[in-house]
Amino acid sequence: MQIDFINITLIVTTFLWLFSLGYLCFAFIALELFKYRKNKKVFSSNFCPPITILKPIYGLDPDMLDCLRSFCQQDYPRYQVIFGLQDKNDPAIPLVKQVIKEFSDNDTSFIINTELHGTNHKVSNLINMSPNIKYEYILIADSDMRVSKKYLSQVVEPFSNEKVGVITCLYNGKPKGKITSRLNAMFINTWFLPSVLISHMLQPMRYCLGATMIVKRSILNRIGGFESLSNHLADDYILGKLISSLGYKIHLSNYIVENIVEETSFKNLTLHELRWARTLRRVEPIGYALTFLTDSLVLGIILGVTLYVITGGLILLLVPAFLTLVLRIILHNSSNEITKSGNITEILLIPLRDILSFFIRVISYTGNSVKWRDNMFSVDHLGLMYEKQVINSHNINETEKISESLT
Hints:
The protein has helices at residues 2-40, 64-72, 93-102, 121-129, 151-155, 179-202, 217-222, 235-244, 266-283, 285-289, 296-311, 314-339, 350-363, 394-397; strands spanning 51-56, 79-85, 107-113, 137-141, 145-146, 164-175, 212-216, 249-261, 369-372, 375-379, 385-390, 401-402. With 407 residues, it is α/β, with parallel strands linked by helices.
């Protein structure tokens, strides 16, 4: 009986490890194909409809001034920028005012409105900004994203095809500061980005990536406006799902946005990635359950230990993990070529990064709570958010509305 158990364990661990190696190879192919398409793509500037840019803001972000400026200095004929805040004491307000003053010749403004329209504060912010939207095409961009001056002209062209309902962009992590920031950027660049590309290869996209999304206002109104997203944790996923259900395509742009990453501690890093993990678990439970097959290095270690228990051979203990690490380094370097980021020392962090991902995946099944900024929420099986704890209670208690704009 014991022998059968050991043999079954060996067969299962070997199969899972080989499957995980297949994932790494598939991820490498997806990255290389994307790199080829990106280098081959010729951008057309013939289609340049006016665009409204919505920038929901909640507190300070790293390099925030540069990130906000980047959306106000677009080499594009006509666009509007609206910054939205939900607290009159938000520490980002002086930066927002500075940017608006610098670009006073542009159509820029900011709105402060404390009203909540559901448990998703970002969506509430978007709803509050909606009355000031001027144009049909609406870009939603997080406050920690940075783009080049050619961003709008390079991403909007697919809307010339009337079947396209949303355009969304990949993003890569640009770390600042501590090792925890590098670990988070590595997760974005070498796990999240390849996983999206693999999904895109296998089937049409049915979701958006919330960092940056462009949607037609007429289509947004057909799904019930931003209000239809107001209680969902994964508002970007639901937006894509609702629009694709109308028969429209979701276009994944070749443009990669920069996400400025600054994690000040392992605790913050864990809470941040735990929110991502539990979000994915709620919106795609089966797909998320299978993501443990991407933990190639951990599976290699488990296989090595199993082989060592059976044979006592030290080489067999090390070989699976070593082969996996070689493939992980190749994938890491391929990703860095696309994102134009990375540091040679990051290779030394790959084992820590993979082991951390594995444990966060395990922890994600131990509860349904997530932390967003200063607030704690619980999430049900439908992905709906419920206020669990409000650390900054004045965001809820204040009922006054303040609207200011500088043009």
